[in-house]
Amino acid sequence: MRMHVRVDGREFAVELERRNGAWxxxxxxxxxxxxxxxxEPGVWSLIGDGSSACFRxxxxxxxxxxxxxxxxxWLAEIQDPRRQPHAESHPSGRLRLTSPMFGRxxxxxxxxxxxxxxxxxxxxxxxxxxxxxxxxxxxxxLMALAVEAGSVVxxxxxxxxxx
Length: 163
What we know:
The chain is 0% helix and 63% strand.
């Protein structure tokens, strides 16, 4: 999964992937040889490049955590693409909802012509064996679906149009 992370105001592009029980980590496009393990709830061990650290992770607010290690503290804000609305509005008022990730459309939960509420789940996309709901970013009428159950989509592909 790709995400943007801000640590004390500094931006990073992070990609995490679980493979054979281990984590593959890329930071700003550079692969990091890290062994990551949960020691106990809220405490994580990171070992790599000849050093190690244990981080205590405390929730700060929605999408933000306070990290503590070696007597230092950092504020980490994570922008998870699965939680961000991927939509583009046009002057006509029609909103084009695009896929936040690569995956397969498992289920469609709304039909064209239906009125949908802001936050309503429109479909489920499976990515890396996780089911991710795609939510409607605003109230409106679902004018068109550009996918069907079983469709494979890439990040940025058109999913639906809402007016």
